[in-house]
Amino acid sequence: MNYRPELDGLRAIAVVAVLLYHAGFSVLGRAFFPGGYLGVDVFFVISGYLITLILLKEMGRESFTFLGFYERRARRILPALFVVMAASIPFAWTYMLPSAFKSYAGSLAATTLFGSNIYFWREDQYAADGSELKPFLHTWSLAVEEQFYLLFPVVLLVCWKFCRRYLGALFLAGFAVSLLLSEWANDRFQNANFFLAPSRAWELLAGAMLAKLEVERGRNAYPRASAILPAVGAVMVIAPMLVLDDYAPHPGLVTLLPVVGTMLLIWFAGGGDGVSRLLTSRVAVGLGLISYSLYLWHQPIFAFARIRSTNEPQVLDKLIWIALAVLLATLTYRAVETPFRNKRLINRRLVWTMASVGPAGLLAAGLYGFGSDGLPSRFESLPSFYFDVVKSQAEHSPTLGAPSNPCEDYAGGDDYCVFPHGLGRVTLATVGDSHLRTLSEPLQEVTEGTDAAFLPLNRAACPLIAGIDRVSIGTKNPFPCTTRYNERRMAVLQEVSPSIAILGGRLPLILESTGFDNREGGIESEDYHWAFVEPGGSGSSPAPLETVQRRFRETVERLLAEGIKVVLVYPIPEVGWNVPQRLAELLPNAAPEDMREWARNHMVTTSYDVFRQRTASTYAVYDAVPDHPDLVRVYPETLFCNTRVPGRCITHDSEHVYYRDDDHLSEAGARLLVDLMLRRMEEKWGRLPASMVADSSLGHRTLSQAGRGAER
User: Helix or strand or coil: residue 125?
Assistant: First the structure.
């Protein structure tokens, strides 16, 4: 093939867009290049064009072999990828706490098998760290390409031999089916639509169609078109990157704009027009040549820098990240990529040896780290308070019963779980989201050996409000929380009556439709845009606060009318920072007693005023429920806010860490809240069955130290 420098210039546009997007620059409070993720789509079209062009020309000369094709793929992709993956391991080992390290290790294993797109699609989006903290999230696009090229040469060769005359029509049909699939899946399976190959194939086939046309007819000169259409293509590629954001329905029909723009640039660029001159400039071509290595390096650098940063990174920080990525990419291109592409320097045997040994070692490392739950043993030799930090972060959501049953996340059927073994004289039921799920293990423990039972009816991001749906605005709804589902939970409570229903959850996240910002640099990594809507609503018009108040009041009143006692748990303070991670960054390397002293005098806290502002609408919803003899109100803020540090909400003391991330309580924090909750219940309703009040010296000691806490 004749070298086309303008294609390297086009690669430069794609990789710069991705870098700017992942760096997260903003101008006047608005994201700069909010649609920079479309750079990946540009890469897909270029890749589809070049690979198909090579395959068709080789098939036409009858020189195509699968061994030759996959050897070229191995030379092009594997060496640089393995270098970046291996280089990341020491940083992950040193800086990642167990939960994050487990996710990283899983992605390491999946990337070696070119299945990282499937891994990230299947990952728990609610519990996982934000995308900017995942060093190998970007490898999903490599997985899509390799999965496509695993099958594409086979299908292409069969079509070439038996239905060559219909090859163009088959490309067009595949393009149309895949595009329509991606558009259809946007509202239904958005994560799968984004990550999986079937809904991305049309972008690769867009390039393949150009290659087919070029092989048959050549890229004839079109003087007038070549003077105008490159500029049109450039606008079609760049404009969506400046306008679209994370909530655009992508990939789908909207993605046609940059894809068609890329096709125009591939076909018409290369002449004397201004756009072609820019694409073939020395800087653009240079960036294009290192674009693959630059793409590989940028995400691990950005992720580890963010993990190690105790504050929100500034513009200068991000510019340094980019400069480091460019430097490492340049070195990798010259020292790794270029030699491995040279068959005189690196023979076929060495390539296949590298392609076998490299994945084996990385796969083993990834599987070991994942199977060992992130290797918390790495920190056993550290001072006791630091190890408690690690233990808190390593905690998972409570897992009750067998891994295959629905106890942890109630599915809505008849197979709900009751602990210890069946219904008791009184059944304690938690009915809420993951915030209430953190209370499961302490509640299960306090019912053991009593004539009471524990029933978890929790689902991530789903508080109990009958007659209203919780939806995701602009994205798919990964955690169904519908009127039908909540009615089923209400029915279960009636089936097991008499019972005590514990209601609550992270209502501020839904009512405010945004992640938490503590206004001191702690900004939630994932900005969930969720809202309550009337049944059948789209989410474009969230239900008014008055409607949510009315629906919640009706829900509680229905339960009370059935003779079910209700414990209403008000909001658990959000933090903004991942508490264990922030403590790990801030703690000095000191002896145990010095570390405890540091923790006592340098507490990680957040503003109580910000908490009050953030939760005002949630309190309005809960306070709208009238007082009732069978209703108990529990205020977690009395444990954490305005107690030891006036005007602040604490996240730990000198002995224990109360959060396992930026908003979920750790085991220690959950035991405190359960202890408070049971005491409030006993105060109002008298002695609970078999004296269930938690025998928790931690809880008693901390509560006595904290005093009454904040008053509402």
Answer: coil
* H or E segment and range at residue 82: helix 66-95
User: How buried is 131 (Cβ within 10 angstroms: 0-12 exposed, 13-18 middle, 19+ buried)?
Assistant: middle
Q: What pLDDT, on a 0 to 100 scale, did the predictor assign at position 406?
A: 56
Residue 336 CB partners (closer than 8 Å, separation 6+): 79, 80, 83, 293
State the alpha helices, DSSP H only, in 189-333: 190-195, 201-217, 223-243, 256-268, 274-279, 282-289, 291-308, 315-332
Tokens of 485: 């589902």
pLDDT at residue 96 greater than cutoff 70: yes
Distance between terminal CA atoms of the chain?
Answer: 74
- Contact partners, residue 499, CB within 8 Å, separation at least 6: 426, 427, 428, 429, 455, 493, 564, 565
Q: Write down the pTM of the prediction.
A: 0.79
* Burial status of residue 32 (CB atoms within 10 A of its CB: 0-12, 13-18, 19 or more): middle
Q: What is the DSSP string of 147-166?
A: HHHHHHHHHHHHHHHH-GGG
CA 349 – CA 622 distance, rounded (Å): 69
Do the strands 26-27 and 30-31 form a parallel or antiparallel pair, or are they unpaired? antiparallel
Query: E strand or H helix at 46, and its extent?
Result: helix 39-61
CB-based contact 125:478 (threshold 8 Å): yes
CA separation, residue 251 to residues 115, 232, 248, 292 (Å): 19, 21, 9, 22
Q: Flag whether pLDDT at 697 surpasses 50.
A: no
Which of 178, 139, 457, 163 has the alpha carbon at shortest distance from 298?
A: 139
Q: 673 vs 339, 443, 453, 588, 670, CA distance in Å?
A: 60, 10, 19, 29, 5
Q: Which one has a higher pLDDT value, 292 or 533?
A: 292
Beta strand pairing status for 499-504 and 565-569? parallel
Residues of the chain above pLDDT 90, percent: 55
- Give dist(CA 582, CA 604) in Å, integer: 8
Q: What is the mean pLDDT of residues 639-668?
A: 89
Q: Which residues contact 1 (CB under 8 A, 6 or more apart)?
A: 50, 53, 54, 57
Q: What is the pLDDT of residues 73-89, one digit of tens each?
A: 999 999 999 999 999 99
Check residue 579 and give its pLDDT.
87
Q: What is the pLDDT of residue 514?
A: 87
Token pair 């000095």 is found at 588
Distance separating alpha carbons of residues 537 and 59, to the nearest angstrom: 53
Predicted pLDDT at 1: 66
The per-residue pLDDT for range 343-374, each reduced to its tens digit, is 888 888 888 888 888 889 999 999 999 998 88
As a whole number of angstroms, the distance between CA 597 and CA 266 comes to 63
- Cα distances (angstroms) measured from residue 30 to each of 26, 243, 543: 5, 11, 27
The pLDDT-based confidence of 508 (bands split at 50, 70, 90) is very high
The pairing of beta strand 648-650 with beta strand 499-504: unpaired
DSSP codes, 576-618: SS-HHHHHHHH--S--HHHHHHHHHHS--EEEHHHHHHHHHHH
- 576 closest CA partner among 618, 604, 600, 599: 604
Spatial CA neighbour of 338 closest among 139, 70, 80, 85: 80
